[in-house]
Design brief:
Elements: H1 3-20, E1 59-62, E2 66-69, E3 78-82, E4 87-90, E5 99-104, E6 107-112, E7 116-120, H2 143-154, E8 164-165, E9 178-180, E10 187-189, E11 193-194, H3 196-203, H4 222-225, E12 232-235, E13 245-250, E14 253-262, E15 268-275, E16 279-285, E17 292-296
Antiparallel strand pairs: 1-4, 1-7, 2-3, 4-5, 5-6, 8-11, 9-10, 12-17, 13-14, 13-17, 14-15, 15-16
Helix pairs in contact: 2-3
Length: 299
């Protein structure tokens, strides 16, 4: 190889790393989660899961990967798969053929009730929950619960490199936005969405001025999250708790997401703005040993 060719190759690699250092998209060393296959509705037992009417606005939790279909039968097309542990919101009280009309990450469809448990009643219905020892913030719940609530509101929006802007009422088809191309040279349409670090900062409302979901703010990159600071403390992944974050940074690139539940070293439920093609999604994934667990200071 001539000295000229070696010089050009070195320049290209250096330029690539400089561009990549601004963002937080996952790299090839951290593959996306595998697609889930929905459970067979015809094989479900009539004695398991939900049956009968459920109030509109109630939250259901999937007990396995469940098909979200365009209509109330197995003849209708699958719109997406609700992952094991995923939450959906009931849109119609009475089921049809065992299927419930529900919304998941902004998409409304029909999903088979045998693979769901009732997770929460609509506000104002049912018995009030007992209080916990954890502090209650100005939103009326524990800081961790409110952080997860903000993460859930962001799910379904598009990936928007270098941004963080969502809606308190959650996503709709009109506000979802879209991303195309390969980031950081990607294109975004719409007024809402975010990248991975934009989501984490919005979920934990850091800095203190970043309290509005609908105000675009991207104060940090994964470089700012990859270590203990006045805002964050690195913890052992064995001690990770709901609403903590996972982060890695290597070679000028990185990724971060909000931990929901599960094994910190194995399969766990996550909320993340994953990448241009995936958008902001929730579901089970694993994280390589390169990831650190971080906790919002004071919590």
């Amino acid at each position: 190889m001539s000295s000229y060719v070696r010089h050009c190759a070195t320049y290209i690699v250096t330029l690539f790393l400089a561009v990549a250092s601004a963002g937080c998209a996952p790299t090839g060393s951290d593959p996306d989660s595998e697609d889930l296959a929905g459970a067979d509705e015809d094989a479900a037992s009539s004695e398991q899961g939900l049956s009968g009417s459920v109030p509109v606005g109630a939250t259901l939790r999937a007990t396995t990967g469940v098909n979200l279909r365009s209509g109330a039968s197995t003849n209708n097309a699958v719109l997406r798969v609700v992952p094991d542990g995923g939450r959906v919101t009931v849109q119609q009280a009475a089921p049809q053929n065992g299927f419930y009309k529900v919304k998941h990450n902004g998409t409304i469809g029909w999903s088979y009730g045998a693979y769901y448990d009732l997770d929460a009643m609509p506000e104002g219905e049912g018995d009030a929950d007992e209080g916990t020892d954890e502090d209650v913030d100005s939103s009326g719940g524990s800081p961790r619960a409110n952080a997860i609530a903000r993460a859930q509101k962001a799910m379904g929006f598009s990936y928007w490199w270098g941004h963080g802007r969502f809606k308190d009422e959650g996503v709709t088809n009109a506000t979802r936005g879209s991303c195309s191309g390969s980031c950081p040279s990607c294109s975004h349409s719409g007024n809402y969405g975010g990248d991975c670090s934009g989501l984490v900062a919005k979920v934990w409302q850091v800095p203190s001025s970043n309290t509005s979901m609908s105000v675009d703010s991207h104060p940090y990159s994964t470089a700012d999250l990859n270590g203990s600071t006045s805002q964050w403390t690195v913890i052992n992944r064995s001690n990770v708790q709901q609403a903590d974050a996972m982060v890695y940074r290597s070679g000028g690139a990185g990724h971060t997401f909000i931990y929901g539940s599960g094994d910190g070293w194995g399969s766990h439920y996550a909320y993340e703005c994953k990448g241009c093609s995936a958008g902001c999604v929730e579901g089970y994934r694993t994280a390589s040993s390169a990831y650190k667990a971080i906790r919002r200071s004071g919590y």
